Amino acid sequence: MSKKNETYDNMVGTRIKDSTMEKLNKLTNDSGQSHSAVVRMILENVLDGNKINLSNKTDYQSMKELTREVNKIGVNINQIVRNANEKFYTIYEKKKLFAMMEKIQQMIAEQFNIDDEV
Length: 118
Description:
Blueprint lengths: L17 H14 L3 H13 L9 H29 L5 H21 L7
């Protein structure tokens, strides 16, 4: 996903067949995103070797919501780590935290069919 305040300085133009445009229009309508956002996401993911799925608006909205939740969890983890570094937590609590983080990583890997370790 792209960052909210990210700027795009380079422009790419291309001609496509009517059938390709129809598919792009369908993806755009189904995902609720602009043509530019859809093309950018496809291009970035293909170049990175990732598979993409923009099949429908609910999938996209679910992904957005999941991203927000993961971000909130990340903020909480950062706060916990800061406190752990300041010696507020016991060794047992630190081990428990790392176990929970590993479980979250496994759940994300399963959800997105990621084979590599997160």
